[in-house]
Amino acid sequence: MEPMITLRGLGKTYSGNHTPSVDSVDLEVQLGEFLCLLGPSGCGKSTTLRMIAGLEHPSTGQIVVGGTVFDDVAGGQCVPAERRSLGLVFQNYALWPHLNVKENVGFAPRVQKLSKAERATLVDQALQTLAISELAERYPGELSGGQQQRVAIARTLAARPQVMLLDEPLSNLDARLRLEMRAEFQRLHRQTGNTMVFVTHDQFEAMTLATRIVVMDQGRIQQVGTPSEIYDSPANRFVAEFMGSPPMNIIELGHNQAADTWMKSRDSAATSLGIRPEDLEITTTPTPGKFSLPVTVSALLPTGGSWIIELTDGQQRYFATSQQRPALTEGQQVQAVAQKLHLFDASGQRRTNVEAVAA
Amino acid sequence: MALLTPQRERSTPATEEKNSLGYRTKIILRHPATLLGVLLLLVFGYLIVAPVISLLLGAVQVGFGDEAKAGAGAGSLTGYYLDRVFSSPVSDIIFYTPLLNTLWISLCSMVIALALGVPVAWLLVRTDLPARRWFSSALIVPYMLPAWTFALAWTTIFRNRSNAGQQGWMETLGWEPPNWLAYGPVPIIVIFSLHFTPFVILLVTNALKNLPGQLDEAARICGASSQQRWWRITLPLLRPALLSAATLMFAKAIGEFGVAYVLGLPAGFQVLSTTLHQSISTQQSGIAAVIAAVMVGLGGISLLVDLRFLREAKRFTTLNGKATLTKTQPLARWRTPALVMVGGLFTISVLIPLGTLVLSTIMRVPGDFSLQNFTADYWIGHDLPTVGFSQGVLVSAATWRAMWNTLWMVGLAALCTGLLGLLVGYVVVRSPLRQLGTALRVITFMPYLVPGLAFAVAYLSLFAVPRGPIPALYGTATILILIMIADEMPFASRAGVSAMMQLGLESEEAAQSLGAKFSYRLRTVVLPMVRSSLASATLLPFVSGVQGLSLVIILATPGTELMTTLSMTLIDFGYTHAANAVVVLICAIALLGTWATQKLFRSNLADSLG
Ligand SMILES: Nc1ncnc2c1ncn2[C@@H]1O[C@H](COP(=O)(O)OP(=O)(O)O)[C@@H](O)[C@H]1O
Ligand SMILES: [Mg+2]
Q1: Is residue B317 over pLDDT 50?
Q2: pLDDT per position as a tens digit, A153-208
Q3: Which of A9, A147, A238, B1 has a Cα-to-Cα distance from B525 of 20 to 30 A?
């Protein structure tokens, strides 16, 4: 099936900047997908999204949505934002303060010159979907942050866009509300079947919501995959270190005796290895056939339901996690045994098809 | 993807470059701000650039009637006027002395205004001065009124026998003021200072309010005394505001005409604006053009200085957090002296001048305070013993005609100004072609540098005769309205830009991504959201247009008499009572307008002065 959105060689350099904010991005988004653009702040997520929406214009490349070429720099083609029928939800909601909720939500149907009855139905439906029917007469200034967020989404829904684009829609909400709205987005996606492109810098948001995640850094796509692919087999060190908290433990080869010994004769191309904190098991004796690090427990940090164990081997720190209270004391000498290893080569790419872990 | 790729032709880098240029051009051309910007450029090219250029050309082109003197045909290039102004026997009289006078008077009044304004602003913002809220509006009054109002009040009190006309109050009371007190530089400096002090107070109060309170508190925690905090923290942070105020005052002082006209001329004291007026009224337009060009140059220098400081100010604003309420500092035993000082400033700059003007319109003999000397005749009487203006101001048809003319012409001009300002703001903020916005900003700022008189001369020479499809405009209301629009554009376009910046892009982008076309989103989203800025961008030009004198004095004809020109006509005829009464009316309109702006739109005057 033809993808809903196709980006080809998409790039953007803002005037006055030397480096591109978005750099040769190739991407396909399938119909009905919930795609998350994930990356640290400033990596070009918003720029990508705004280019799809037609609010920024690419410096190179092509954007095709639903079979229509929206932008083609080489071909000199451009469809203006108002004719793209894509719904964009802004980070700060961008509700119009002089219009009440009903008028805000009814804006697009009015622009589309629908009949009065059709407009009323669309508005009611959108308000009901977001469970804010009782706010219809209020003005944005009289709404809480979460309510404004719902209005902003309802306003986009009422336009019946072919794709919903959302730019960090949850970042302005407090922690509890964010969790609530996350569930709401999942429901919304299931209910409407809309294609959604969701921008966020929060890995947990992406992991819970997305059918696929696109990890970006410095304007480039680092990896595209399902949440478990991204987490379990990160394509490179950036993705490996960006995903997960506490972050993956990285050991540079050539400085660590235990690791060097272990790696000798296993994979000569690897220059560093990584172990996720939950893959480190703490034991008192080395497990034969597995990579073990002799370490000292330096701190035990409870985080509510689980524990973070801080370890040190005199050169660097390691983190391990445990679901039960660890039977350890600070200063205790233990072995940290890796259940799973990731290997990276000199350019930071992950070594695949190298079975270096279990013997 | 595989389906689509083959459709794309492989292109060489060169054609790709060309095509991407096509793409960019397409985007620029299709953006609504581009067309709008080009239209605005045409409008302002006609209203601002053409007059300014013709004015400057006048300095190096032989004018009609000067062919013999310059020894060249009319219209050809000449250095004659430059020579005459800069290096001829009369240079001293017509140029160098007035230039020096202008410079030192501007500098003196600038320094005095700063010295008065900064402490008062501090008292108003940072201390427990009694009635400080009331004072912070009351002390602004002089800025709302035309400066020559104060000149009139001054002569009403201090006029002496060296000049014809009614006697002054002091004279009636038995003391003849010396010439240096009655006319010339001293009163001019006093009045400039009083007129500019509110401006300093406004800017500094605003800057002080925007300083995050934590800075002061942080210094306090470090153990800095209140004096140290003032000199080390607050004052350096205020520096951009102070320098900006100083340069703006300087530019204003150069162009100010009415005060020097009323107070300088009787003593033969000339500044640039009065020599300019003289050369215009003696038909020496080439000389006038040279002098005007020098004034434009001086204004330009102060603008450059201001721009530099503005850049510096931007560096400071990055650290500008949310303005927080700072605890006020108790004045303790200084409370009474401070109150006396602020009260004294209010008395001198507001009570006495306005009181004098009002009283002078209800006293038969100036300065005689006996009860039977008071009369309402000059306001509502009939058959007064004067030749030309024999009815009270409020019953004379001439007043009402001038009032009506003022209200509708200035009102219309102000409305156009406000709208144009917003459109300029739109182009500046939205245009993908940054140069378009920059060009508009620069052009709309030009009138600020051109003294009103010189601008009027340019309009006269350009629009007095029919040109192309445009008929001769002299004597029409149109020429007055056009010049008023042009003259208020510097303020209006700044206000428009800041309104659009504040609005941000997202409100409009949201409408755009929901499918709204340009005109629709302008109507339903942009204009409604900036309506309060539009209102203040209209009312403030209205207030300043009502009191404008130098701009209209040579363009208004008996058919298009305005309040200000009427009062000057009355002064020229020696009808002081009536002239002052008209001025009182102008002040009333100006104050009412300002008050309405602040009340209706809760807009802060200082913000819009920028
Ligand atoms: N209007 C702009 N002008 C110049 N540079 C910009 C502009 N918008 C964004 N950038 C730059 O482009 C990069 C990517 O920005 P953005 O797409 O907003 O990142 P993200 O949304 O991932 O945080 C940043 O380095 C930012 O500084
Ligand atoms: Mg962003």
Answers
A1: no
A2: 999 999 999 999 999 998 888 888 888 889 989 999 999 899 999 999 999 999 99
A3: A147
B183 and B266 Cβ atoms separated by less than 8 Å: yes
Mean pLDDT lowest for which of A241-250, B252-261, B341-350? B252-261
- Extents of the domains making up chain B: 30-81+376-610, 90-322
Segment A48-76, tens digit of pLDDT: 999 999 999 999 999 999 999 999 999 88
Q: What are the residues whose beta carbons fall under 8 Å from the beta carbon of A358, sequence distance 6 or more?
A: A289, A290
What is the model's pTM? Answer: 0.81
Whether the ω angle into residue A246 lies within 30 degrees of 0, i.e. cis, is yes
Chain A residues inside the 8 Å CB shell of B19: 73-76
Position in ligand 1 atom list of the atom nearest CA A16: 4
B14: closest chain A residue by CA: A74
Question: With a 6 A CB cut-off, is A40 part of the ligand 1 pocket?
Answer: no
Gap between the Cα atoms of B585 and B562, Å rounded: 12
Per the CB < 8 A criterion, the answer to whether B576 and B166 are in contact is: yes
- Can B30-81+376-610 and B90-322 be said to share one CATH topology? yes
Measured by CA distance, the residue closest to atom 18 of ligand 1 is A46
Task: Give the C-alpha separation, B176 to B167, whole Å.
Answer: 10
| Between residues B43 and B305, the one the model is more confident about | B43
Å from A92 to nearest chain B CA?
Answer: 9
* A261-317 pLDDT, tens digit each: 888 878 888 899 999 999 999 998 888 888 899 999 999 999 988 999 999 998 899
Q: How far apart are CA B423 and CA A85, in angstroms?
A: 27
H-helix or E-strand spanning residue B608: helix B605-609
**Residue B361 tokens, joined:** 């319109």
Residue at token pair 């030397």? A18
Give dist(CA B71, CA A248) in Å, integer: 90
> What's the complex ipTM?
0.88
Superfamily of domain B30-81+376-610: MetI-like (1.10.3720.10)
* B90-322 is classed CATH 3.40.50.300: no
Q: Kindly list the structural domains of chain A, giving each domain's residue range(s) and its CATH number in brackets, ordered by start.
A: 5-238 (3.40.50.300), 246-358 (2.40.50.100)
Contact A78 B26 (CB under 8 A): yes
Count of residues making up chain A: 359
* Structure tokens, A303: 């985080």
> Rounded distance, CA B117 to CA A130, Å?
56
